[in-house]
Amino acid sequence: MSTKYEVQEFNLFGGWSNNWSSEDGTPSTFASKKDAEAELDWFLSECQEAVEDGNMEDAPDRDSFRIVEVVA
């Protein structure tokens, strides 16, 4: 077994869950916490850019996400 990291998002109905997935729908995990943080940073930056461009009403709050260690 190896240690991986995943980005989880909180929602009111299911609590914390990994909503990140690859193109084939496989849940995404990251080799390091640093990689997971970089992915979350990129995602939030893209959301903020979409808000500024008028394509989204509001960007998600970083506090709605967490990075956790998982055993894969």
Please tell me about this protein's structure:
The chain is of the alpha+beta class and 72 residues long. It has one domain. The protein is 28% helix and 26% strand. The chain has 1 helix and 3 strands, in the order ββαβ. The N and C termini lie close together (6 Å).
Oligomer state equals single chain
Quantity of strands, as a count: 3
Report the structural category: alpha+beta
The total domain count is 1
- Major β-sheet strand ordering: 2-1-3
Give start-end ranges of low-pLDDT stretches. none
Mind sketching the topology for me?
Elements: E1 3-11, E2 15-17, H1 33-52, E3 65-71
Antiparallel strand pairs: 1-2, 1-3
Give a short overview:
The chain is α+β, with helices and mostly antiparallel strands and 72 residues long. It has one helix at residues 33-52, and strands at 3-11, 15-17, 65-71.
Task: Supply database-style keywords.
single chain; 72 residues; alpha+beta; 1 helix; 26% strand
